[in-house]
Every structure is written in C-alpha cells, then in structure tokens.
Amino acid sequence: MSFLDYAPAPESRAILSLRDSYGLFIDGEFVDGRGTPFQTISPASEERIAMIANANDADVADAVAAARRAYDRVWSKMSGRDRGKYLFRIARLVQERARELAVAESLDNGKPIKESRDVDVPLVAAWFFYYAGWADKLDHAGLGASPRSLGVAAQVIPWNFPLLMLAWKIAPALAAGNTVVLKPAETTPLTALIFAEILQQAELPPGVVNIITGAGDTGAALVSHEGVDKVAFTGSTAVGRAIAKQIAGTDKKATLELGGKAANIVFDDAPVDQAIEGIVNGIFFNQGHVCCAGSRLLVQENIHDEIVDRLKARLSTLRLGDPLDKNTDIGAINSREQLDRIRELSDAGVAEGAERWSAPCEIPENGFWYAPTIFTGVQTSNRIAREEIFGPVLSVLTFRTPQEAIAKANNTPYGLSAGIWTDKGSRILAVADQLRAGVIWANTFNRFDPSSPFGGYKESGYGREGGRHGLAAYLAPAPIGQAAVARSATKPAITADASAPEPAAKRPRRTQKATTKGSKR
Amino acid sequence: MPAPVNAGTALATARERALAVLGGEPDDQTLGRYLHGIPGVDAVGLEQRAAALGTRSIKTTSKAWALDRIIELIDLTTLEGADTPGKVRSLVAKALNPDPADPTTPRVAAVCVYGDMVPFAVEALGAAHGDPDDGLISVAAVATAFPSGRSSLAIKLADTAEAVAAGADEIDMVIDRGAFLAGRYGEVFDQIVAVKEACRRPDGTSASLKVILETGELVTYDNVRRASWLSILAGGDFIKTSTGKVSPAATLPVTLLMLEVVRDWHRLTGHKVGVKPAGGIRSSKDAIKYLVTVAETVGEEWLVPHLFRFGASSLLNDVLLQRQKLTSGHYSGADYVTID
Amino acid sequence: MTRLAVPKTYKLYIGGKFPRSESGRTYEVAAPDGRFLANAALASRKDARDAVVAARAAVSGWAGATAYNRGQVLYRIAELLEGRRAQFIAEIEESEGVSRAVAAAQVDESIDRWVWYAGWADKFAQVAGNANPVAGPYFNISVPEPTGVVAIVAPQDTSLLGFVSAVAPALVAGNSVVVVASERFPLSAISLAEVLATSDVPGGVVNVLTGSPAEIAPWLASHADVNAIDLVGAGALDWISLEVDAADTLKRVLRPENGQDAAAPALGRISAFTETKTVWHTKSLR
C-alpha cells in the first residue's frame, strides 16, 4: 500500500439534523415561500440535501416590511450595548455549533471540510465577535459623533463562502443598528438557514434579520425594493454593474464586492518554498472559487521554469475528492454551470496557444470536479489572463523588472487583490504602493480578518468590508444641524461640523430628488 | 536557485559534489557566498505549511502502517550522565522486543548512546546487531564533544574514531555552532569532512554520519537552511535537528525546512540525504505528522531507516499503546508497556 | 481720457496648456444685466477626451508626490489667489452681478478652503487609515489612496467657490481631475486655471472645460478611463442617466447638491475619491 493514499477520514454527518425542507425566515419564523421551491444538492455527489422555499416578489415585500417594522419599533431604538450583546450571543452560538455548520457548508458547497472547519466557520464567529464590540462605540467609527444607521439593508451573497459572506454582511449591519434582509445564493442556502435557527436560539428580535431564499430574480426584487436603504452585494461584476444601474438616482447606499483577476507576483529573491505554498493557496484554496484568488501568476522570467517545476510537483500532492474527508485539499466545483464555465475558459486557453497541465488526480464519478490546472505560455491578451475563471486554474505569465510586473498586474479592469513575494522590504513597500488593488498580501496570500478592510478598486467594486471601514459602510454621519442650514449664502463659514465627513450627497439629494422627479427615465 | 549538477559517476564523492555545486574551494568566502545566495525562508509561511501538514487525519490501515513504520524508524536513545551498562542493556532489550505481548511488533532502527556505551550496546545486541534493512539493529553513538561540541578537533576526531572502533555503525556529530554563527563556514565544513574521515573503518567501509545542527541554537530558519546545505555539502549522510539537550529541539517546521533542503539537494545532484528530527517527539500523533511531512515533501521513499529517523525515547511506548489500541479496540495503559 | 482696456481670451485648460476648443466653438458669457463679458470656449467631447488623457498622464506624478509636497502645492494656490484677490473680486462682481462685498466673501472663502484642504494633505491618511490588529503574525495596515481620474461637474451657482470646493478635496489625496465649470459663470474657473498654471500644480492634474455640462458630462460619465465622477453640480442635468452610465465601469459617484453652499468642506469629500488599500505582511523573528 501507499501511505500517501491515506485511508478515508470522513467527517461524520451525524452531527447534522437537517430538515427535509426549509421555508423563508421572515419576522423570526420559517414561513412557506410563494415561488416554486427548488432543491439544494451536494455538488460532490449530486444528491438532494433539502427542498428550499423560493421567495417571490410578495415574499420579498413581506421580508422588507418585517425588517422595516423591526427597525422602526425595536432595533433602531435599542441601545448599542444591547445590540452588541445579541451579536456576542450569535458569535458564541456559532462557536458552539461550529462543527455542524462546517459539515453543512462542505456538504452544500463542496468545499473541503478542513477549510470550512479551519477557515470559514472560525472567521464567521470572529466576525460577529469583532462587530459585536463596535455596536456601542459607533462614535469612533470615523463619521463623527452620533452617526445614524441607514435602515433596512438588502444583502445578496454568493455561493463561494456562503456562511462567511453572511457574517461579513450581517455582523456590521446589525452592529450599526440596521435591520437586514439577506438572500443567500441559490446553490448554497443551507448554512444561512441553520444560521436562522441560531438567531432563534439567540432570541434576536423578530424581523431584525430575515433570510429569504431564491435565485437571481429574488435578489433583483430585493435590491430594487423601494423599502431598502442599503444594498450590499458580493458576486460577479456583471451583476454588480446591474445593481449599480438599478439603484442610480435612489437614496440607496451600496457596497459592492465584485470580481477579481489578482496578480501574484513572484520575484527571483522570493522565499521560494513559501511562495509555492502561497501560489497554491492563492489559486487552489476553495477550488479557486475566490474573488481575490491569485489567478495570474506573474513570475520573474529567470525563475519561471524552476517555479513551474516546483509548482507541478507540489500540485501532484494535492488530494481531490470527498469534501467531507478531512484530508481533501480540493473539493467539488459548486455547480454544473460553474464547471461548464471553467471548462469553456480553460479550452479557450488551449485554443489561444497556452499550454495546459493538470495535476494527475482521479476524478470521482458523480458530482462536479476540475483538477488543479496550470497554464504556461499565457499572454496578457489571452482570455484566461483577463477573465475571471473562478476555478482551480492558474495562468502563468512572466516579467523582467518590477516596473513591468506592476504594469502587468495593473493591466486589468479589476483591482481587488494582489500578492508580492520577495525578500526585499523596500521593494515590497514600493510595489504595494503602486498596485491598484484593495488588498495586498506580501509573502502571504488569502488571509482574512474581521479587523482588516477588504474590497476592491475599479471594477472590483466599492466600499470595504471588515474593520472600521466596513462598519462605516452601514452608517451615515449625524444629520447636519440647523447651523449648517442657516449658513449665509454670502458668508459661507467653515463650521465645526466641517470635519465630519459629509453624507456626500445625502442631504441635498433629497431636495434634488423632489425637484427632478418625473423628468427622469 | 542553482542549476542542477550532473549527477553522474564522476561526482561520486562528497568533495567532488561540493566543489561542483560551489564552483570553488569550500572556504569561508565561497561558502558564505553560496549559503547566503540561497533563497530566504519566510517563517510564517513555513510554520503555516507545517501546521497544515499536521492536520492530516491518518486513520485505520494508514495509521496501522504508520505506527509500525515509526517504530522501524526510531533511534531508541539514552543520553544521560547517569547511563550505565545496565541501562544500555535494558534499552537494547526494549529495542529488540518493544512489545513482549505482541511478537508482530517491529524492531527499532538503532539504539543511540554515548561513545563509551557502544561496547555494551554491541555486546547486548549480539547477533541482532546490524543493518536495519536486514531486520537488525544499528548502534549509533553521539560524538565530537556532544552536546556542546566545545573541544578541539583532535578530541572530536578521537571521540569519533573510538566509537567507530568499538562497533558504532552511525555517528551523530554536532557542528560547531559558534563557528557557524561567527561565519566561519569553512571551519564547520572542514570539521564535518574530518569527522566523516574518522568514520572510516580499516576495511574501507564507513560509519554513517549524522550531522546535528542544534537548531535551537541557530534560532532562525535561514540559519537552519544554510547549516543544512553546509552539512550536506560537507558530506553528511543525515542532517539531524538537535541534541535533545537544548530547547526547542525538533519542531515540525524545522524538520519540514530540512526536508526541503534534502529535496532540493536531490533535485540538484540526484543524491539522497537523510533527516533525523530528535528530541521532543513523544506522541504517536506528533510522529505521524512527521511521517506525513516526509511523504508530502520528499516522498514516501524517504520513509526508510536509511533516510529518516526519529531520535526519541518515550515515543516508542506511546506508539506501542496506540498499537495495542488498534489491535484490541480499547485503550491501553502505561502498565501494559515496559519501561526500559 | 480713459485708457482702452485689453480684454482676455478665455480658453480651456488641458494638460497645463490653454488651448481653444478643438471644435473652434465659443459661447457668449454675459453679465446678469445682459452685458457681453467674454466668449468662453465651448468644449467638445474631444476636448473632454483630451482632458482625460492629460489627467491620466498626471496621476502617477501627483499621487506619487509626498503628502507634504501636495499640501504645499495646494497652499501655494491659496497664496497666489490671495495675490490676485482684486482680479477675482472684480470678475465675480461683473459675472454674478453681486456687490463687491459679496464677491469678496466668495473669494476669501475660496482662498480659505484651499488652505483648509491643503492642511489635510498630510493628515488625511492618518485619520482615514488604520493599523489593523489581525489575529495572526502579520503587520496589517490600511491606507487611503487616490481613486485616479475624477471627473467633476462643478457647482453651477457660483463662479469660484463651488469650483474650488469640488476640486480641492479631490486633489488632496492625489487624484487628477477634469472639471466642467459652471456654464453660467465660467470665467473665474479659467482665471483660476491661470493661477494653477503659475503655481506648482503639475500640468494635467487639473483640467478645466467650459461649455455645456449637459453636452460634456455624458462623455465623462461613460469614459472608461475615468475612475470617479462628482455630479455635485449636475442637479439640473439628467444626472440619473449619468449615474447609470458611470455604473458601466463601476465609477465612484457623488450625487448632486444644490445651492451656494454645495460641496461644503468635509472630510467625506476627500474620502469619496480614495480607495482603502490594505497591506498584509508576515512578521517573525525566526
């Protein structure tokens, strides 16, 4: 036998007590949806996990109304201290039910249990802990004294980190005093619904968080609902763009976390073994279903062959298979649709002349799988170097000088993240300065922390999640007092409130809206 | 990263390999240039990789195989000022028959003792003394003014020669950490070469040389990496983490790093060098992490006594307890394994 | 006998130069009483395109300058403006038909806003940035960086103050701007450009277009090489369409404000055109 085959080490599913079907979580209760229910499956086996309710427009309206009631009657009036205590409760309950959540996540999403267990779920708890403490300290959020919450937040999240994205959205929203209607992705609703049970255990007041399930049309109905004050979306740039257009001219504030095509830049003095790990972690973590994945490896030309050789050797040790096996490194692709897209782009890479190499691994019979793949000889003009593949596919390009590396790294409409690998401190800082990306990892990659702001430049979206910045995204400065209104037109004064970031166009825009109504499309 | 060196027969000797890799005489300057030209180590990344390897879950058949293999890779060790012939005989008895209740239990690879204890170990082993590949047990002796290494080269060589003459199959030497940290790489190199020479027996064969870096005193990973390269260039058959007398002794990140050097050396020259983590590995669980790290870094073919060893004493009994659990299905207790 | 005055030709300001509109068009700028004041350049979409090219080329130098240096350059504008105070007062008096005192108040406030924003240049990052206490062996810091090229539809109700109030904050962090001046009161914007040209502001950092915001703004809103658009003065335009166009490349958008006090000084005006960049690095003694 081969020791490296490792006997199966499956995580037990016994910890799960799933229902056969799940309703919508509105106003603190599970209710039936009025759309046609759909099933959620395990992408690793294609077996049905549960039936999921489908929210139609009326259900969306109910959820928004519940959130509005909870906002008006309870949550906006509650002290920050008590809001914080609810969030602390949630954090603890997540920790208590961590294994159950991890198993459910891996089952529904297809990600390896070691990632849901060691990364996703611990970060979920950390996110609630972090923002819990903010709830009674909003004066220090950077918006001046007594900032106000926005109201009802509509949150639409993707399938790649279902529960973690939920935490990124709900924790700061509630800490800031908003109520929430959240829609998880169609293919990964399970953990959000278990989370709803956690909210019941936490005795969170009904309506403060509502979770509605459905597909893109449900999300669109939610985002465009007029009762919504804040939109937070994580997903593709195409949908993000549509949302930005949809809410143009409204009072809605938006945070958009969209696509990426991150460069992972490896200089010839890099700590090579760690760089290899960083490259692997950068693109093969979560099957490459990561918006900030290091999907473009920019390697200094003089070490290209060496790096590629080492990378191939390393990839050959990756274990693809059952997401619930504790030794699985690469789990299942989340859906057939996504698998098709990965295949299409990958084939395009071959057609454009790049050389494809896939790690030798056995592909299970059922489910959706894609072996870790590297493309060498990729040119900056190739589709696989420009489009987000969102799968375990790495494009390798070369550079000669730091300037060229920066130019190539920035040569994309995206700007979410980037990696730098070099032993030279001055180069790290200078390159980091010039990369047009919201998160730069130097000699590491794909690290996340609730205190660390995350978000993109350019078409990777706007707004930040995490840290003080992520809190501010759910707040507005205190309404400007009479002093500002009374400013003389002839003697404008720089008054004390000048230092408070103004609600960009919030106040005047209301006036504006009234005057322009009817003249717009 | 240096280009691969042709690993043909022309480079059969350590010195020839070293000259080819270094491109010059192994003096302080040449060695310094070479060792400081090796890519650095990012400590955080190294430790994370080691931690990730440590999360592998080894169950059922894999675990059974691993437990037996751990035993077969152990240098069962006693290195006390209080060591006596009686203690060494007891150690040897344990090495020969680790679990009297289960004759299927494999033997350890070697016993590891101070030089003056070698004759007692050899005598106690009797016909069982020999190559672990043949199911026999080797005698390893620590030498070269172990553990500090603070004495003259002449004494270190005499220490070594005496142990070899007494029947030691393997010599565990210590490098001069002071010389290394002061940048006198040539001196460290020359000492290893000289000790290796002292390992030679009259019949032309040679005791195997394990070079102890004492990583706890080198402190940084960059130092460990350089010392590993230096020791391999000088002809060490094994690189070993620690004496067991300095804390921290073996750690998984340090061992991973040394395995990476061994892997790179193999890529470069085609020549295989062994690795021996020693000190501080007490549980089966920890030892299995090392096996995983070896298998996933240099490959499973390294999990043989000639390429990987555990320097340990209490580890053996923990492995036996786990082994009994696997066989019987229930947990065992300390009274059901023998003390040596 | 009175001296015959020498009138000024008001042109565009693009890339540090004062070209006429490539279209050759001008439009008549009149005082409130209908008196002819000047022919201002009627910028075309190609002028807007040229201005974006100039702005893009200027970003790296301006963003790359030290914050201390940017602060001094912005303060230098205030100094030069102070020296030409009388010129601006007279121009505003004529253009807006207001009293000398009202015009003077506008000029003085404009100067003071430059001073206020100049002072932010080397403090803003400290206030908007963070050291983040992440749970791991990492150095982690967040800093605001300029968004890039910012298009601005300047407030339409004042000659100078609105223009300064919208432009100054965008410059603080290191953006370069393409500004469409007030359609009715474009003269002070061009006079200010003369100040900018003789101060230490690098060419291309501020580009001024005069003409019809309704004509030019859509080209800026849809321009893929513009990173953000400030619609503060676009209230009378179809600004929702502009916001929709801007969404094509996910531009950062500030929505319209009305009144004389549009774009009142605020830290939020600086941060609106910055991107928070978070840098992680491992740390270890080993």
Automatic annotation (TrEMBL), chain A:
Segment forming the signal sequence: none
InterPro entries: Ald_DH/histidinol_DH (IPR016161), Ald_DH_C (IPR016163), Ald_DH_CS_GLU (IPR029510), Ald_DH_N (IPR016162), Aldehyde_DH_dom (IPR015590)
UniProt cross-references to Pfam families, sorted A to Z: Aldedh
Coiled coil: none
Composition bias, Basic residues: 506-521
Residues the record marks as active site: 257
Segments for region (Disordered): 491-521
UniProt xrefs under Gene3D superfamilies: Aldehyde Dehydrogenase, Chain A, domain 1, Aldehyde Dehydrogenase, Chain A, domain 2
Keyword annotations from UniProtKB, A to Z: Oxidoreductase
Family: Belongs to the aldehyde dehydrogenase family.
Protein's name according to its UniProt entry: Aldehyde dehydrogenase family protein
Native species: Agromyces lapidis
From TrEMBL, chain B:
SUPFAM superfamilies: Aldolase
Keywords: Lyase, Schiff base
Superkingdom per UniProt: Bacteria
Reaction equations catalysed: 2-deoxy-D-ribose 5-phosphate = D-glyceraldehyde 3-phosphate + acetaldehyde
GO-annotated molecular function: deoxyribose-phosphate aldolase activity
EC numbers: 4.1.2.4
Pathway membership, UniProt: Carbohydrate degradation; 2-deoxy-D-ribose 1-phosphate degradation; D-glyceraldehyde 3-phosphate and acetaldehyde from 2-deoxy-alpha-D-ribose 1-phosphate: step 2/2
UniProt-listed InterPro entries: Aldolase_TIM, DeoC, DeoC/FbaB/LacD_aldolase
Family: Belongs to the DeoC/FbaB aldolase family. DeoC type 2 subfamily.
Protein name, per record: Deoxyribose-phosphate aldolase
Species whose genome carries this gene: Agromyces lapidis
Organismal lineage: Bacteria, Bacillati, Actinomycetota, Actinomycetes, Micrococcales
Gene that this polypeptide is encoded by: deoC
From TrEMBL, chain C:
Keyword Oxidoreductase listed: yes
Recorded superkingdom: Bacteria
InterPro entries: Ald_DH/histidinol_DH, Ald_DH_N, Aldehyde_DH_dom
Domain Aldehyde dehydrogenase: 21-253
Keyword Oxidoreductase: yes
UniProt keyword terms in alphabetical order: Oxidoreductase
Pfam families: Aldedh
PANTHER family reported in the protein's UniProt record: ALDEHYDE DEHYDROGENASE-RELATED
Designated name of the protein: Aldehyde dehydrogenase family protein
Naturally occurring in which organism (per UniProt): Agromyces lapidis
